[in-house]
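User: Good morning. I'm curious how zinc ion would be positioned relative to this chain. Could you predict the structure with it bound?
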Amino acid sequence: MGGQIFGNAARIVQLKKIIAEDKFPHAVIFSGAAGIGKRLIAQTCAAAILCENPNSGEACGVCESCKLMAAGSHPDFLVVEPEESKSAPVIKIAQIRALQTETAIQPMRSERRVVIIDGAELMNNAAANCLLKTLEEPTGQSLFILVTANRAGLLMTVRSRCVTVNFEKLSAAEIKTALVNRGVESSRAETISLIAEGSLGRALRLENSGGYELRESALDFIEKLCAKKVTVEDIFSRGAEIDKWSREKFGEFVGYVQKILRDVYMLDAAEPFNADLKARLEKLKIPAETLYELFDAGTEIQRRLRSNAALRLLVESYFFRLKLALI
Ligand SMILES: [Zn+2]
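Assistant: Good morning! Here's the predicted structure, ligand included:
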């Protein structure tokens, strides 16, 4: 399969084999942590299944079907994703109904059609129950790949209709190689690979879309809180600023705060999340019971982020709780 996929070599060999033997299950769950390449692997499988001249479970890359896949316009390849909104992203029943209308007809070019449902755990109950009907009555003409970072978040009835393929996190060395291949300078790639927690997606966010800076701003905020340099006005102005972010980005910010707190709690841990920040973390000196309180605030805000509550209110109440805990 494609040279851009890193890690999970044994799984990929298995998948190629079942594609070559034409035994790909009609409904399969690709399960594993976010950002380890599940979606890319699912697309690669789809390309191989739809290819007109596949070779040992791999797409040829040159046939008409492969060209359409590469152009993102293969009529027998469908992707369903959560719809972004101001509240938590969700896959709605209308999306699954639209999918069912399309899958009810014969595939256009190939013998089969491949459907990827990415973020499948974000189907609401109505959507999941609707999909269940399709999974219960396989026609053989459509194959479903449900991609999820939280398999337990899927309805049990949906899980039981699917074969599950688990994917592992990547090693730091695999992530470093992937980053260097993308032109990231070696020592920066090394640092990022250590804090990416086995996720190439996370590593790329750290590298490309300001994640590295986001972590810095999380640590900077904790340092200022500990030094009692955060005023009420600061909290309101930060609230206004973060209100322009996506909920996902703020969730990531809170995630960095949580990992920094965890590292402060276990400064001598064998595998700190932020190994490169040790000298700064050692200076924080937060008592254990305060760390619990701060950590608890983060857990609660991550839960509330999945509700419909306004982002700005969530940000401000979180920051106030952190400030109070550190008085
Ligand atoms: Zn082909």
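The mean pLDDT is 90. The first helix runs from residue 9 to 20.
Let me know if you'd like a different ligand tried.
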